Amino acid sequence: MVRSTVIRLFGLALGVTLIAGCGGTDAPKQAGTSDNSVSGAPSSTPLPPAPGALPRIAVLATGGTIAGKSTPGSGVGYTAGQASAQDLIDAVPGIDKIATLQPEQVANVGSQDMTEEIWLTLARRINQVFADNAADGVVVTHGTDTIEETAFFLDNVVGGDKPVVLAGAMRPATALSPDGPANLRAAVTVAAAPQARGRGAMVVLNDTIHGARDVTKTHTTSVQTFVSPNSGPEGYVDTGSVRFVKSPLPHQRPRFRLPDAAPLPRVDIVYSHAGMRADQVHDAVGHGAKGIVLAGVGDGNTAKSVIDALAAANDDRVVVRSTRVGAGEVMRNAEINDDELGFVTSADLNPPKSRVLLQLLLANDITDPTRVQQEFATR
Fold it and tell me: Do 75 and 86 form a contact (C-beta atoms < 8 A)?
């Protein structure tokens, strides 16, 4: 393999390259620069609210169950993305006492229909809001099915230290006891809290605050569906007060430069199972995938024929080993010789988030396996 020699050095060099490649103390670059790193903090100096003034929170709505309405004649069915941003705010008594809200409708779709175009629109809008000092924080209302992917995308492309909080609901707005209003109130409370700065994107549902990297949906219908299996939650909202149980990162991570337009480079997820054949790999290659994420069994493993196909595909694209298991880290060179085969391991990123990160890396022309592995270890 062309890449084997390069990757074989990774185990020895990781401790040094992590510091040199991602965690340096230089100021982040602005969006649109030619550097492959990322956009940094907005150029304008944030102004604190006037004494006694409420925090200013932009509420960007994208649809989802939180904006859903029941289907006539159905006991369980509903249509996502029916209520507007202003409708959602109007359904929360007293929310205007927490912050001055600025509603804006960015999209109105079920999150199964979330697109890269909407991701880019959201990211550009949030960066502009912060650059103009038009808000002290942003809340994004979103469907729960793909909220973790959108949160992780925004966490890697939005500059500055102001909070970005995503909220959704497991029950539609017309349900007997909708959870959306309480979740929106909690999200606004978090976004308005001074201690929320510097924590990147967060997801808030059921009075629990999760970081974008680890949060994942674990139940089809329960309001307590979101957990952070590897690191635990960031904090909690309790009767209007915010309590963080983790400290923010000591420094701002560089953010990726936003691509000019969608689509992002194609990355396919290949799902491993008993009796698996290499057809999924061949299909991804045949359809022009620039990267492949393996949702492997156990520690990111799969059938030998599939490993062989991934190794053959690795000369022209990046292959990342993740796992379909709900928690834990994929260990490098444990069951599979990643150095020899030229594979990248996902650390504790699940397959959907591994796909998002690989798309951003490829969009920023970061294809060297050692650098890709470094990014997976530090983001």
Answer: no
Residue 90 labelled as part of a binding site? no
Multiple choice CATH, 56-244, 3.30.160.20, 3.40.50.1820, 3.40.50.1170, 3.40.50.10230: 3.40.50.1170
| pLDDT given at position 135 | 98
111 labeled binding residue: yes
DSSP 110-172: -GGG--HHHHHHHHHHHHHHHHTT--SEEEEE--SSSHHHHHHHHHHH--SSS-EEEE--SS-
Q: Report pLDDT digits (tens) over 138-167.
A: 999 999 999 999 999 999 999 999 999 999
Compute, in degrees rounded to 10, the torsion defined by CA atoms 180, 183, 188, 192.
180
Q: Note whether 96 and 189 are within 8 A (CB).
A: no
Q: How far apart are the first and last CA of the chain?
A: 27
pLDDT tens figures, 255-285: 999 999 999 999 999 999 999 999 999 999 9
| 329 torsion bin: left (phi>0), alpha (psi -120 to 50), beta (else) | beta
**Catalytically active residues, by annotation:** 65, 144
Would you say 144 is a known binding-site residue? Answer: yes
Collapsed DSSP state (helix, strand, coil) of residue 369: helix
- Work out the number of other CB atoms within 10 angstroms of the CB of residue 88: 25
Domain 267-377 has CATH 3.90.320.10: no
* pLDDT tens for each residue of 186-211: 999 999 999 999 999 999 999 999 99
